[in-house]
Amino acid sequence: MSSSVRDEILAKLKAAPKVSILPRPAKPKLHEHSLTGEAVIEKFSKTLLEETGMVYRVKNNEEVLQKLLEIAYEERLKKVMVSNDEVTAPLNLKVWGQKHDIAVMTPKEYPDRNSFRDAVFDQADAGITGANFAVAESGSLGLVFHKDQARLVSLAPILHIAIVPVDRVLAYYEQGIKKIFGEKGKYPGQFVFITGPSMTGDIEGVLFKGMHGPRKVIVILVG
Predict the structure, then answer these.
(1) How many other C-beta atoms can be found within 10 angstroms of the C-beta atom of residue 114?
(2) 9 pLDDT tier (thresholds 50, 70, 90)
(3) What is the H or E stretch that residue 81 is in?
């Protein structure tokens, strides 16, 4: 392009009338933002089922134990690894396991990291945890990891069973993020979203379930 042509184009651009940029329109609210009460529970259950997870609803901890027994029978569970978080601790799963000939292991029983790792990977048929919250928008679980909620309990066994009080089921992501990260300076060391069984699309872009973690996720809603 000759300099004269270039100069002509630049001159036209400079002479063109300036138009102010219109403000960005307001983002429409998600449908989930208007959900409350049982509608949130129904949305979470529907979305998790779409992600090939499973959901059961029970009324209280006594029914949690009964549902766990049913799952243990169906899945042929002989050994389970259980976190000691504020949801699972009141269930006293050690006693439950003794009654039903199911070995219940906990991370605190192991003297070092390697022995715990070997147990949770090689011995546990399932990992049982609570959850800090669940998200109806995507069917996700939100778990903060700490000394009583070891990360591998939910990630290593081929079956993850999460017990979630219904008052912890939130409509959308932002509510969960605010719940965990809303207070400045009090952030967890580790946090994860779990949306159904583990999944990868690394091989030719084909989605595959259960490659790097649980092949099945079961959620028991309580309340």
Answers:
(1) 9
(2) confident
(3) strand 79-82
> What count of residues does the chain have?
223
Computed over every residue of the chain, the mean pLDDT equals 88
Find the radius of gyration of the CA atoms of the chain: 24
- DSSP conformational letter for 18: P
Burial (CB < 10 A; 0-12, 13-18, 19+), residue 57, is middle
The bridge status of strand 133-135 relative to strand 140-145 is antiparallel
The pLDDT, as a whole number, for residue 187 is: 81
Phi, psi of 71 (to 5 degrees): -65, -45
Q: Which pLDDT tens digit goes with each residue over 195-209?
A: 888 666 556 665 656
Going across the sheet that includes 190-194, the strands are 169-170, 133-135, 140-145, 190-194
- Per the CB < 8 A criterion, the answer to whether 215 and 160 are in contact is no
Amino acid, single-letter form, for residue 86:
E
CA 150 to CA 166: how far, in whole Å? 23
Tokens of 203: 């091989």
Q: Show Cβ contacts of residue 134 under 8 Å, excluding neighbours closer than 6 positions.
A: 44, 140, 141, 142, 164, 168, 169, 170, 219
